[in-house]
Amino acid sequence: LQERTVRAVGSNAEVPFDARVIAATNRDLETMVEERRFREDLFFRVNVIQLAVPPLRTRGPDVLLLANAFLQQCAARVDKRIVGFAPEAAERILSYPWPGNVRELQNCVERAVALASFDKITVKDLPERVRANRGGTPIAIAEEDAVDFVSLDELERRYVLRVLASVSGNKSAAARILRIERKTLYRMLERWSPATTAASASASASAGSTGATS
After folding, report:
1. The pTM is what?
2. What is the pLDDT of residues 102-128, one digit of tens each?
């Protein structure tokens, strides 16, 4: 690694090579070096740039984005028409802590696609450990909301608005990222608009008042 040369077994000739080494680990290598359980010289040769990848449980609604990406890949591979996750299945996926990170999520989705009988993944298609996690701690939508756990509808609203903000309000681009029709996005935004919310609340209040008068 240091000299960028290799030598074949049984040969005295050194052959130069030009390559980048990308290494990944879930261990604390610095501590292992201090404890002499990992070679210090090797550590400093490969430790040029460090990228800390956060665990899946801290990624909020990104988990559903990944799950949907895996779903499309798996469904295409087995030629099944599956368009997404049922709300309860999405809730379980968001609340499960994913100790196995992306590999576990991918395996979970592959299993669900194989077992799915409908055009959406249901709770019964998920592994038992994920199905049983209903009472677990939900994933926060963002770091600043670490103690603000919300309903699935609110989670969807926040995420859609975040995607929209990331593309400077471009609804066509947002719809492509979300993999939904633009008219669907318009309906969602209309549903979440202050005027619509106020009208809905007013209608509910009027209905309650009428019922009380009767």
Report:
1. 0.53
2. 999 999 999 999 999 999 999 999 999
Q: Are residues 38 and 64 in the same domain?
A: no
- Packing angle between helix 182-192 and helix 171-178, nearest 10 degrees? 100
**Into how many domains does the chain fold?**
3
Domain that holds residue 110: 56-132
Report the alpha-carbon distance of residue 1 to residue 16 in Å, rounded: 10
Taking CA atoms, 88 is separated from 20, 56, 126, 144, in Å, by 44, 19, 11, 25
DSSP H or E segment with residue 43: helix 40-46
Residue of 88, 134, 89, 138 whose CA lies nearest to 109: 89
DSSP assignment letter at 141: S
Q: Which two tokens stand for residue 116?
A: 């799915």
Low-confidence ranges of the chain (pLDDT < 70): 134-150, 166, 195-214
Please state, in angstroms and rounded to a whole number, the distance separating the CA atoms of residues 188 and 124: 28
Q: Which amino acid is at 176?
A: R
179 vs 27: CA distance, rounded Å: 36
* φ, ψ (nearest 5 deg) of residue 35: -90, 5
